[in-house]
Amino acid sequence: MVAPQSIPQRLQTRTDTTAQSGPVGEAANRFNNAFSDGLRLFLDGNWEGLYDHLTSGALYLLGLLTERGLQSLAAFLLLYIIYRALYLASERALDRSDSIEPGLQSLLLKTFRVASFFFIGTVVLDQLGVNVAVLVGGLGIAGIVAGFAARDSLENFIAGVTVLVDKPFQVGDYIEIGDQYGQVDEITLRSTRLRTVRNRTMVLPNTHMITQELMNHTKRNVLRIDVSFGIAYKEVPDEARAALLSLFEGDDRVLTEPAPSVVVTEMADSSVNMALRFYTRNPDQEVPLRWEYTEKVREKLREADIEIPFPHRQLFLDEAKALQGSDLLAPADDPANGEGPSAE
């Protein structure tokens, strides 16, 4: 009986056929052939030949794995060192840039990191003998399927990029969206986080941030605060104006230019509605200043003896024959309604 060829011998004779199939196909063919030969030796009971066959196969696989492993390790270390150098340089350059906000800086660095690791992984797998082209094609198909499955997340991602590029607001801005008001704490690719006046964190999807009406209270640097109030019709608006404008003396939080003002805004049913208007450069003081001066307006009007009316109605009855003889139309001093003089 002719002893089967060892693994190195068989590999040498099949060089032409396996070279066309690539490293992965070559390794698969070698393993199949070696397994077939080992099974035949086992069935024939050729234990010495089986021992030699397994020994030579193990040594060959060890050498193959060692060679490709060292190549892959060297490629990984070299590319990783280059990646770290480029990443640190990019991070320092972005930190020194005043035109790129922190949210966009984070997006650029994360994108660079993902692209770099994808490239490094591709090179390492190629050194290990993996058919990278087939792998990338499969990942592309899987990415399309995942995109349909995670459509909402993809929409939020695109909206997050839009927010970071268009800059309708930035981290630290005070914004109002819908009936919510707060300071922007963080902008991510999926959501925006606001800190409310109650010190709560509100997480809003980025699609919500670009589709809803949004008011930025910080963008213009100077912010006007309005405090609405009303006075009775018998009062004189100039007197209320003179009394309230004196409130700002010594308050450095309020700008002198544009100057504070008090204007009439409406002739309402029960009051003459007015507004105290003043400007500040501290958007973070908007809510505290509004609360503070709302109370000051009330106290100042009370000190100046200017009436702040409340809604009321007067009802006049003309020829109310249906109510004649009832207690509603009885004179104030009529004993029938219990308000007349008491008998002694």
TrEMBL record:
GO MF terms held by the record: mechanosensitive monoatomic ion channel activity
Protein name: Small conductance mechanosensitive channel
Segments crossing the lipid bilayer: 69-86, 131-150
Amino acid composition bias (Polar residues), ranges on this chain: 1-21
Alphabetical UniProt keywords: Cell membrane, Membrane, Transmembrane, Transmembrane helix
GO terms under cellular component: plasma membrane
Domain Mechanosensitive ion channel MscS: from-to ranges: 152-219
Higher taxonomy: Bacteria, Pseudomonadati, Rhodothermota, Rhodothermia, Rhodothermales
All copies of domain Mechanosensitive ion channel MscS C-terminal, residue ranges: 225-308
Keyword Transmembrane helix part of the UniProt annotation: yes
InterPro entries named in the record: LSM_dom_sf, MS_channel_C, MscS_archaea/bacteria_type, MscS_beta-dom_sf, MscS_channel_2nd, MscS_channel_C_sf, MscS_channel_TM-2
Subcellular location(s) of the protein: Cell membrane
Region (Disordered): 1-24
Pfam families: MS_channel_2nd (PF00924), MS_channel_3rd (PF21082)
Family membership: Belongs to the MscS (TC 1.A.23) family.
Domain of life of the source: Bacteria
Membrane topology: Multi-pass membrane protein
